[in-house]
Automatic annotation (TrEMBL):
This is Stf0 family sulfotransferase. Coiled coil: none annotated. InterPro entries: P-loop_NTPase, Sulfotransferase_Stf0_dom. It comes from Mesorhizobium qingshengii. Residues 48-257 form the Sulphotransferase Stf0 domain. It holds the Pfam family Sulphotransf. Gene3D superfamilies: P-loop containing nucleotide triphosphate hydrolases.
Length: 277
């Protein structure tokens, strides 16, 4: 953009500050998607699960779908694009698919979103303004190292759910686990900063809490959406998935700690860490 280059002074920290301010000032703001009336009809509430890879989000998604609390899949990029040949790549079209296919008969729709996916969608679409009657759930996992191990393993094998088949056997890679750990930390930081900066209220849940008390936590989500869960009082919620953590996971944890644990160092690395843009 010519005007931005004109406003960029030569050299120095002050020059960079002025240039960044000018870029922010003249940046084209993404617009919300106009939702057709036939899609808006019957929408009671929306739930955005703000999370990161391997946080237990697939398990929560299965529970929510079974409870009539929407169908929170990765509607914006990610696995939908890879798994469905006819799935649209335009984020504006993805919004409409999320509102239609992500909705339960209760009128609640749900979306699962990683910070890295959000950063891409936000370049062209004002996503929060496009999703009607939106509520926020912040899903995290206390065991960050376990999460990093799980993500590294899933990317190697292609098995992100227990119902899927592995493409190849997993192999220990300490550097990949360390990288996954830093990326998860960045995902979490990006969500926490965005929610705080915008003063957005949210329901905070952890994977471990959901494993321990699935029904109680589903009821919290239902309360957030001003609805009720579809389970009978005596029934036990089931996501249809099994825990993939096993002896291999435990072995990788032990090897990683023996290789990387060093309490004398505070920073994970000396690389300059940047948030998603």
């Amino acid at each position: 953009m010519v005007v931005l280059e004109f406003l960029r002074p030569a050299g120095g920290v002050f020059a960079e500050t002025v240039a960044l301010f000018a870029m922010h000032l003249f940046r084209k703001r993404p617009l919300p998607v106009e939702i057709p009336p036939d899609i808006l009809v019957g929408i009671k509430a929306g739930i955005l699960i703000c999370t990161s890879p391997r946080s237990g989000s697939n398990h929560l998604a299965g529970l929510m779908a079974a409870a009539g609390l929407g169908n929170p899949l990765e509607w914006f990029g990610g696995r939908r694009v890879l798994e469905l040949p006819d799935y649209p790549r335009d984020p504006r079209a993805q919004v409409l698919r999320a509102l239609k296919d992500g909705r339960s008969t209760s009128g609640v729709y749900a979306v699962k979103l990683f910070a890295s996916q959000f950063s891409q969608v936000a370049k062209t679409v004002d996503l929060p303004a496009s999703l009607p009657r939106l509520r926020y759930v912040r899903l995290t996992r206390r065991d960050l190292l376990g999460q990093a191990i799980s993500w590294t393993r899933a990317r190697q094998t292609g098995r992100f759910r227990s119902t899927e088949t592995s493409r190849q056997a997993p192999r220990y890679d300490g550097a990949a686990i360390a990288e996954s750990l830093e990326k998860i930390a960045l995902e979490n930081l990006a969500w926490d900063v965005w929610l705080a900066r915008n003063g957005l209220p949210f329901l905070s849940l952890t994977y471990e809490e959901i494993l321990e008390a699935p029904r109680a936590n589903l009821e919290k989500i239902a309360y957030l959406a001003d609805t009720k869960i579809a389970f009978e009082p005596a029934s036990v919620p089931n996501s249809g998935l099994e825990i993939q953590r096993d002896t291999v996971s435990a072995e990788w944890r032990e090897r990683f700690l023996s290789q990387y644990s060093d309490t004398s160092r505070f920073l994970a690395s000396n690389r300059r860490i940047r948030l998603f843009r």
